[in-house]
Amino acid sequence: MDNNQAFRDRPINLDEAGNSKRILAKQPEGKWYTRRTVFAWICILFLIFAPIIKINGNPLMLLDIANRKFSLFGNLFFAQDTFIMALIMLVTVVCIVLFTVIYGRLWCGWACPQTIFLEMIYRRIEYLFEGNPRNNLKNKEEDPFFIFRRIGKHLSFIIISFLITNVFLMWFTGPEKLLEIISSPVSENQLGFIFMAGISIFYYVVYAFLREQICTVFCPYGRLQGVLLDSRSISVIYDFKRGEPRGIKNGGDCIDCGQCIAVCPTGIDIKNGSQYECINCTACIDECNSVMKKIKKPGNLIRFDSYNGIETGKRSVFNARTYAYSAVLLILIFILGFTVSNRSTIDVSILRMPGTMCQIIDSTIVSNIYNVKIINKTNKAKHITFKLTDIQQANLEFTNDISLLKEGKTFETVLMIKLPKQKLKGRTTDLKIGIFDNNILISTIAINFIGPQN
Description:
The chain is α+β, with helices and mostly antiparallel strands and 454 residues long. The protein has a domain at 346-450: Sandwich (Immunoglobulin-like). The chain has 14 helices and 16 strands. The protein has helices spanning 31-49, 82-103, 106-110, 113-130, 146-173, 175-183, 190-210, 213-218, 220-228, 240-243, 259-262, 283-294, 307-312, 320-341; strands at 54-55, 58-59, 61-64, 69-72, 75-78, 235-238, 302-305, 346-352, 359-360, 365-376, 382-388, 395-398, 404-405, 410-420, 428-437, 440-450. Helix 1 (31-49) packs across helix 4. The chain is elongated.
């Protein structure tokens, strides 16, 4: 079979027998790699410090699933914020679809934690211990210290995997709880330590052995992009109009040196066209530009462009379609931000106690019993009072004192409302309860009051 067509029949990291082939990519060099390195370390710092940094007393990012409490950019969300959660999911899905349609698999090469950790941490540790394949490496038979280098590399992998696990857990527990787990004896938190060890082993296996197979075999996003991309989508692409026919003496600018393959972290040949294994990391752009400079030909034989841009010869990175789709993304993000910023700071639910009817206190007073649940979504304590806004002669009695609602806390109690019979408007009377914070109305709840049968 023609080797140029073999990539269509199996993943590039598998041989004809189906066995995994280890990809030893050269470390990229160039302006795109420098840009990606800076961006990657910004992402790493965000992953580390997002649960630690606090805004208005709340973590920048915290996903406390156990307590069903989430902090996103300093705003607290609870399980009761179903509308906002649904909106976040909707905006996320639409953003993924539109972003991929416009910019291809840019997320995978620039912001995906799998790529960032592999390329910026684990692979650099491997370069440190075993050398950069860009240089002429000695075979392990020729290197008397090879086994010690390999042991040092894997020990470093294990340590880094443990540290990444702690960063991962901090997003779900917060730094205080994580420190408590780490400092407590293993016997007091066996489940937590087992979970931590399991995740650390998982990360070690992924970054020491599976590596690019996570992107090419396990991750569904690479397969999904094949459905979402079209001829106008922007991606890392080879200019076949300019590069063909390949070879030093064949007339095209591509000399078929194979350096774009040697530097690719997934081992593909970008000259074969769009492939789901391509993560748009731009390593081949830097390498090809370096070769073009040496042979004194124009750069950007491989570049960010669309198939239509290559066909027509007109760069189409920024066009009406790009601007329109990007505008939709910004509008969706704006709607989400507006909804979050204007949500109520206190969430109150008042529901009739199941199985109860009205209670006749005496010949003039009737009562109803309700379950009350209050959530303080802020980082400040609230001094809460309840008042009926439409009937003045009512009496509200709580089984527990609700005057002080602490920050970020949920409070449940039972409310008994007593009304004079002459204020009832038939079998069912509509009431409005105002919730006040320091005598300032912050919310109004509508309820039904059931009276006695005539």
